[in-house]
Structures are given as structure tokens and as C-alpha cells.
């Protein structure tokens, strides 16, 4: 039997974050939703999604997110994982993380 998977969309610092998690529950903290067991792609090839990498780094040591109910836009139960994303709150367009480039020499 497949494990339940949720797509969680929420506001964070003026952006809309879209993450995938295995567990979503009412939190022990009143007014908060608890998000646990975040799911990220494990890329072992040459193609790496910089947004997915940024989110994986940002939440690397997170065991649970406690999100205030008013920051949550939507929680969807999904059959398959899509791409995690960071979107501009106003336009809905994906925020592209630029590829790091070394500074030019003098």
C-alpha cells in the first residue's frame, strides 16, 4: 500500500512555498498545523533543480514545521510527488534561484 503524500502550500517571507510531506496533523500548539516527514527528490544525476536543492538545504535539519493556520493556502492529498517550488506571492510565478557563478577576476 502506498504511503499518503500531501502537497502543502503556505506563505513564508512574502513567497509561497510548495512542499511535500508524509504527515500533516493538527499541532499541539493551538492554531498551528504540524507538517512532518518532508519529501525531497534525491538527485544523483547531473541535472539538479536549484529550487529543490535550496528547499532541501533550508529544511535539512527540520523534524517538524509548525505553520500558523492563517499562513496555509492549501493542503492537497496527492498520488505522486511533483516539483517543490517557491513562488512569488503576487504573480504566482516560480522564483528562480540563480546558479552561483564565481566573481570575475580583476
Molecular structure report:
With about 110 residues, the chain is mainly beta. Helix content is about 10%, strand content about 40%. Strands 1, 2, 3, 4, 5 and 6 form a 6-stranded antiparallel sheet that branches. The mean pLDDT is about 85.
Q: Keywords for this structure?
A:
mainly beta, six-stranded antiparallel β-sheet, 1 helix
Task: Give the arrangement of secondary structure elements.
Layout: E1 5-12, E2 15-26, E3 32-39, H1 50-58, E4 64-68, E5 72-78, E6 85-88
Antiparallel strand pairs: 1-2, 1-5, 2-3, 2-6, 3-4
Structural class: mainly beta
* Oligomer classification: single chain
**Which percent band covers the strand fraction?**
35-45%
Largest sheet: 6 strands, antiparallel
DSSP, total strands: 6
* Gyration radius, rounded: 15 Å
Total helical elements: 1
Q: Write down the overall mean pLDDT.
A: 84
Molecular shape: globular
Low-confidence stretches are none
List SSEs in N-to-C order: EEEHEEE
Helix content: under 10%
- What is the terminal separation in angstroms? 59 Å
